[in-house]
Write a structure and sequence with these properties.
This protein is α+β, with helices and mostly antiparallel strands. It has helices at 11-15, 17-27, 37-41, 64-77, 129-137, 155-161, 168-171, 205-209, 243-255, 268-278, 298-313, 326-337, 339-344, 361-374, 401-420, 439-442, 445-458, 472-476, and strands spanning 33-34, 57-60, 80-84, 100-104, 111-115, 120-124, 141-142, 178-184, 190-194, 218-225, 227-228, 233-240, 262-267, 288-295, 319-322, 348-351, 378-384, 392-396. 37% of the residues lie in helices and 19% in strands. The mean pLDDT is 95.
Length: 478
């Protein structure tokens, strides 16, 4: 039986469904309200597809004002609300409840402003990550965080989980690149936090909002930092005969004082799946592969890649190949960005998101392999090695309840290992329902109690994205 449970629905709300839907039709255009069973089924799950639940109704919001109306109505009627962007959450963060309304912001797709003088852009929450860069690229700017799902995931979801990506090693994650948000509280009040400046006065509420997983309010707009595009970028592929050598090389590169734009890791199963999927030129003979990218002028790039190659020699690389063109670089990254999808073509997978200190990377990979063997699962490792953000993909059959249960136990043990090694439960995917019961592994009762008090200050009735982040026993006690 699955270890992950959802809160029990409120029978009083379920019995009032017809009346609730009737009142919603008065608040929003009928075309933005989904009430039929088949239409709601589209929103019954997110990228953590082993779990699903049909929501009471779905609202496709088109403006901040509509979001305000819906939240005010829901608070007045004690109806739960699950905010949703593109549904790419890998932790069940957008999973609905039977007695909840899904408030989807995917139609809020306007790029409201691109200000290259002040190097900011203001966008609605439904704008995809890559479209922010596309909007600024003509002026030679880009938005730095780049999750692998960047062609689909939206900025609202990025703020909710504090998303990262391959290039966060140099440029930081969402919290380092979002300067302000417009957010609607559960009461319907619209608030602006931060703005188009580097350091807003007063308390840093923006840091509180980034990574809050829809627990405190619904973000409808974001003001993000734009960066000038570098003169050039180029990756180098370094193959190794062992995962331990590749992991040790990562630490050595960082210790040398060189901070590449990205250091990505793939083990042998991941290399083979991705290469057969896209023919990106990955070395099939390698047990592990590093994709190390640097940027700057051509001379600077050549110098940095030369130094990285010299550092790698200490770990007996089986292959070294520098990209020779923009087309080759794009193909290398296309393979990496498509990795999760490529794995998904051959197996269901349970994706972990723990973080460990770089010095513990060799030990972590060894222990992850041992844990997966203990639970009789294959594993593919594809992750952001430069900042120690692990993404082991535990391969299993999601249609087999016994395998699902074992996969959950296996994943929990991997995440506990990350904490034991001095790391944490999540780097960029959030807690959601997946890691909810593991919060006690990293935080004591006092820590969790303080987080709950912050939640209650914003959402006293616990109506926003309920059943996520906090252990279920604590939620049901509210």
């Amino acid at each position: 039986m699955s270890q992950i449970a959802l809160p029990s629905p409120n029978p009083a709300i379920l019995s009032r469904r017809t009346d609730i839907v009737r009142q919603l039709k008065r608040l929003v255009p009928e075309a933005t309200l989904i009430t039929d069973k088949e239409g709601r089924r589209t929103f019954e799950t997110d990228a953590l597809t082993a779990y699903r639940c049909l929501p009471l109704a779905v609202v496709l919001a088109t403006s901040t004002e509509e979001v305000s109306k819906i939240l005010r109505f829901c608070q007045e009627n004690q109806v739960k609300v699950v905010p949703r962007g593109a549904g790419t959450s890998l932790t069940g963060g957008a999973l609905p409840l039977e007695d909840s309304i899904v408030l989807c912001l995917s139609r809020m797709t306007k790029v409201l402003e691109v200000d290259t003088v002040n190097r900011v852009a203001r966008v609605e929450a439904g704008v995809t990550n890559i479209d922010i860069t596309n909007a600024a690229a003509g002026d030679g700017f880009f938005y730095a965080p780049d999750p692998s799902s960047q062609i689909a995931c939206t900025i609202g979801g990025n703020v909710a989980t504090n998303s990262g990506g391959a290039h966060c090693l140099k440029y930081g994650v969402t919290t380092n690149n979002v300067l302000g948000v417009r957010m609607v509280l559960m009461s319907g009040e619209i608030v602006d936090i931060g703005g188009p400046w580097l350091d807003a006065p007063g308390y840093d509420f923006l840091a509180l909002i980034n990574g809050s997983e829809g627990q405190l309010g619904v973000v409808t707009e974001a003001t993000v930092r734009l960066l000038k595009a570098p003169e050039g970028t180029r990756p180098i592929l370094i193959g190794f005969d062992s995962t331990e050598s590749a992991a040790s090389c990562v630490g050595a590169i960082i210790a040398s004082g060189i901070i590449p734009v990205a250091i990505e890791f793939m083990d042998r199963p991941a290399i083979h799946v991705c290469e057969h999927f896209l023919s990106a030129g990955y070395p099939l003979e390698a047990e592990a592969l590093l994709i190390v990218e640097v940027e700057g002028s051509e001379d600077e790039i050549d110098t940095l890649l030369e130094k990285i190659g010299e550092i790698a020699q200490d770990f007996a690389p089986s292959s070294l190949r520098r990209s020779q063109s923009a087309e080759e670089s794009a193909l290398i990254w296309k393979g990496r960005k498509a990795a999760f999808g490529a794995i998904g073509q051959i197996s269901d997978y349970y994706c972990m998101d723990g973080v460990i200190p770089l010095s513990k990377l060799p030990k972590a990979l060894d222990e992850v392999g041992w844990i997966c063997r203990k639970y009789r699962f294959d594993v593919a490792n594809i992750f952001h090695a430069g900042d120690g953000n692990l993404h082991p993909l535990v391969l299993y059959n999601a249609n087999d309840p016994l395998q699902l249960e074992r996969a959950e136990l296996c994943g929990a043990e991997i995440l506990k290992l990350c904490v034991e090694l001095g790391g944490c439960l999540t780097g960029e995917h959030g807690v959601g329902i997946e890691k909810r019961e593991l919060m006690t592994v990293q935080f004591n009762d006092t820590d969790i109690g303080q987080q709950i008090r912050v939640k209650q200050a914003f959402d006293p009735y616990w109506l926003l994205n309920p059943g996520k982040v906090f252990p279920l026993a604590g939620y049901e006690a509210q």
